[in-house]
Amino acid sequence: YVDAIVQKKHASSENGALTNMVDRSEITGDVILIADRGYESYNNMAHIQEKGWKYLIRIKDFQQYNSGILHGFELPNQEEFDIDINLTVTRKQTNKIKELLKDKNHYRKIAHSKTFDYLPKTSRKADPAVMYAIPFRIVRFPVSENAYEVVVTNLDKKDFPSELLKQLYAKRWGIETSFRDLKYTIGLLHFHSKKVEHILQEIYARLIMYNFSELITSHVIIEKKNRKHEYKANFSVAAHICREFLLGINTPPDIEALIARYITPIRPGRSRPRDMKIKQAISFMYRVA
Questions:
Q1: C-alpha dist (Å) from residue 207 to 58, 134, 137, 160, 235
Q2: Are residues 149 and 268 in the same domain?
Q3: Which end of the chain is more exposed for a tag (fewer CB within 10 A), N or C?
Q4: Which of 171, 202, 234 is the last residue in one of the domains?
Q5: Domain for residue 2, yes or no?
Q6: Model confidence, pTM
Q7: Same-domain status, 150 and 255
Q8: CA 95: distance to chain centroid?
Q9: Exposed, middle or buried: residue 110 (CB in 10 Å: 0-12, 13-18, 19+)?
Q10: What angle in degrees, to the nearest 10, is found between the helix axes of 252-260 and 196-218?
Q11: DSSP track, 39-51
Q12: Separation CA 86–CA 100 (nearest Å)
């Protein structure tokens, strides 16, 4: 983890956090930002585009949902497709703009209530129409025999065909597993503090602890033997060992060898239903009572 934004619950905005992180990021060079369906937004796409980055964002399938950025587009009635869209967005609604908006695949009006940072929030009738161009691809591909996903991207079609986009998006699974380790293995679900500044201290301490554990574990060499599966270090045990190391219990020469003793098999292709229930952070303040 190289950046973090902590927000108050009633003022939280994942999309706002994303655009802030993108704008202030010092990462340069070739970047592909991969995001899940919760970041489906023209404003997010515009910020990434202005940064000079590429993006690959999963979006709602228009054949299953009546909402999302694909709503209103005239798309092929096919199971698989890969089409280019040169979209121009505006907030104006003059008679001339209304005529343009009839071309649904090239023009789109963004309501004043919707966040889009590259168009004026308000304008007088006499003000000229401000337009913003967002070129992208809409790609629909199969992920199983009867399931499909739709992504939006500004990656070049020649260099990144649909099959490669599918492989790229699959790499995002590492983000999901890292969140699981951060919350449950490192313990980000539980706070000992009550004051805001102390809770922030706990959050950043756990992020640093995760980064340290991941850095050490990534250098552990697992011996290749005649086994059925590939193996990797058990991160739960590795984090515990790293915690003991920071407390001075384990010495540096032993830590990687000790982690290498505890391994777990890698089983690709496994899946399970997602538990979509919201899990609240748990405070330890009940101990005071």
A1: 26, 35, 35, 33, 15
A2: no
A3: C
A4: 171
A5: no
A6: 0.85
A7: no
A8: 39
A9: middle
A10: 70
A11: G--HHHHHHHHHH
A12: 13
